[in-house]
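Pasting as-is:
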Amino acid sequence: MHHNETHETHQALPPGLVDTAGPVPGGYAALRRSLAWGDLGRRSVLTARGPDAVRFIDNFTTAAVSPLAPGTGTEGFFADARGWVLALTNILRIEDGVWIDAPTGPAGGLREHLDRYHIRERLELKDESDSFGHIVVAGPQADAWLAARSSVRPPEALLQHGRGLLGDVPVAIVRIDWYGPVGFLLQVAAADQERLMVWLDAQGLPRAVPTAWETARIEAGVPESVDLLEKTLPQELGRDQRAISFTKGCYLGQETVARIDALGHVNRRFVAVAIDGDGRQDHPRGESGAMAVRCGDEIVGRLTSVCFSPLLGRRVGLGLLQAKAVDAARPLEVGGAAARLVAMPLDTAATVQRLDDPPRQTGDADDAPREDGKVLLETRRFRVVRVTEPCTDGSRRDREVVQHPGCVVIVPLVSEHAICLVEVVRVAVGRTLLELPAGTLDRVESLEAAARRELAEETGYRAGRMVSAGAMWMSPGILRERMHLFVADGLIPGPQSLEPGEQIRTRVVTWDEAIAMCLDGRIDDAKTIAGVLLTAARRR
C-alpha cells in the first residue's frame, strides 16, 4: 500500500460540510480544495493506425475526426446502423492514426464492430487495453502543479494531449473535465505504472479513493458505460456540442441522428436528480441495480449512477428520464423519497466554500439560518423567503433572502482584439445598459450548454470553444445568485433567437475600449465589469 493510501474506506463527514449526515470518500476534500490523484484502473483502449485510419474511424462515429490535428481530440459516439449507441468515447488524434479511450467495456466490442466493416483499408485495429495504465490528477490546483513538474506544458483545451515526463516516467497527458473543471488523464505504459504511482506518492500528493472519483464524476454529470442503456440514442445523453457533428459527411447511424435533429427533440433526457434525505436510507433498486424514478403513479425513468453528494448533502443520481416528465417540472419520487431535478455539473466552488466553513459545535445546527424559511413571494425565476439568523449576543433576527437558481455570463471574443457586448433594456433601473450576454439557469442542462445557448440566443454567435472562467456571488447580502463566467472564442455568426419581449441589440467594441468603459463608468453593470476585468487580468 502506498503511504498516501491510508483512507481507503469512507471518512466521517467533516464538520460543517453539509447539514445532513452522509459518507465522504477519502481524498474528496483534497480533490475539491486543491488537487488529488488516483488510479482509474483498467480502461478500454482501441487504436487505429495506418494511412486510412482517420478516414475509416470518421465513417463510424458522430464526431468530426478528419479535421482533428495530431495532439487534439473530441468526444464521439459509435452507433449501430439503427443509431443506437454502442459506446461514448474520447477520440484522440495521434501522428499515425487515432487513439480511442473509453470506460471499461466498449473497446473489445467496438473492435469487433469495426472489424466487420474493415475490408481493404490500410490500417490496423488493435485492442491495447492491457498495455496501459490510467492515472488521474485533478482539482483547482492541478494545472499549476503539473506545469511545475512535467517536462511539457499541460494541455489547455479539452482532450488536447501531449507526451512528456513526470519524474523519469514517460506519460501521455490528456486534458479532461470528468471530475471537475480542471483535470488530467495520465496514460502510462503498464510496465511503468507502479513507478509513476511511487513518484506521485513521493510528491506528497493526496490520493483519492475510487469512490471519491465516482462521486466527482456524478457531480460533474458525466455518463459512463453503466448509464448507456439498451437502445440509447446519442442526443438523449445531452453531449451534442461535444460529441456530434451535424455538418460532417455520412457515417453509420447518421440517418437516425439527422432525423432527431430535424424533429428537434428526444423522448428521453439524461439528467441529474437529487433525492431528499440524509443519504443513509436504503432506496430500493431494480434487478439491474437502477433506481426507479416516479412521477405520480408512473415510472418515468431510472437512475443508473448514484452517490451521496457532499455538495448537496443528499444523494444525487444520473439517468435517462422521459422528456415529458422533465419538461413538466412535476414532483418526482425515488424509493418513497421526494426528488427534484438539478442542473449539472454541480457547482464545485460551493463545495469548497462548505469544506472551508468553521466546524459547528453540537447543537449549532438548529441555530443556523434556514434557507427553507417562510416563502414570502414565489415567481417563475426566483423566490423571497424569510430566514432566521442567530446573532453573536444570542438573539435572533429575521432576514429576507432572494433565492435564485443562478446564471451564466459569457465573454464573447469576436477576435483577439474585439468583444461582443449587448445593449439590454433594464426596466428595474429604467435604462438601457451595456452588458455581457447572460442568462438564468432555468432548465436542466450543463453550465457549458447554458452558456452556449444564451450566447446564441442573445448575440447569434455560436462558440467554437467555451471555457469556464470561475464563478461569483452577485449580491450575497440579500441575494443567493451565483454567476458562472465563461469565455467564448472561435465564434461563428448567426441570427439571434430572442425570447418574446426581450429587447437586446449587439455591439462589438475593441477589447481596450471595453476595459476603458468599465473603468470610466460607461459600463456600470457589475457582472460585466467583473467579467471583463477578470478576463483582462488573465490574458496578460
